[in-house]
């Protein structure tokens, strides 16, 4: 089963301006071939289908714990997409009825890259890539063969890091760049972990056979605080007590496999990161989000909230 915490894995800076095209670029990290929906889908079903769990517990625990983190990555990117598409909050923007809607207040939206993101989803995120092509189950690999699945996962993390770097290079807004910086660090952890697992199973020194990904995190400003805090050497269990066995693969000896990985002890952390608040997107009555003239809805919600206290 899964627990849910009402936080993002990190604190995201507010966007400087509304930028639907930047939101479209960020969609690649959600619904692209190497996006978070793909990493989640692969690890989720591999963990469900894992054979001989009790005998291969460290490898099962590794995939299961990373699965839980990937759910949070989907949440993080989705929030970033919505924040960029909507722009900075407007004080009392969710009050009233939005005024006169007959003068084409969203005329510019017809020319944005993913107009459907506004027309159908009010600027929200859905599992599509940067060109609105739907993510689909064909991107999930779960063979039942532990080595094949782990090798596929390593490839997936390497491809994901490459795509994150390319998206990062297209963005200037701090919201999108913060997401890319964090995910580049965490993707390094996951690629490193799968490489170590393969090394322990096969004895093959993967860093000599596949010297990739060669992405120097030390040169990316948004990665620095996560490197300084040790996030690049930390795997979370995302559970209060389970999946501790992954320490047999990831833990203690400062081992490195990937080029340009900053040094440090490998650490397994029980539970989840401290996280940061979820951005409170202001409603837009003229776009009927959450509704046109929503004061009655707010009043009902306020009464229900007081009753719950």
Short recap of the structure:
This protein is an all-alpha fold. The protein has 10 helices and 2 strands.
Helices, strands, pairings?
Elements: H1 20-26, H2 28-31, H3 36-49, H4 57-86, H5 115-119, H6 146-168, H7 174-202, H8 206-209, H9 224-228, E1 234-236, E2 267-269, H10 295-308
Parallel strand pairs: 1-2
Can you tell me about this structure?
This protein is mainly α. It has one domain: Ferritin, core subunit, four-helix bundle (Ferritin, Up-down Bundle), CATH 1.20.1260.10. The protein has helices spanning about 20-25, 30, 35-50, 55-85, 115-120, 145-170, 175-200, 205-210, 225-230, 295-309; strands at about 235, 265-270. Helix 3 (about 35-50) runs antiparallel to helix 6 (about 145-170), helix 4 (about 55-85) packs antiparallel against helix 7 and helix 6 (about 145-170) runs antiparallel to helix 7 (about 175-200).
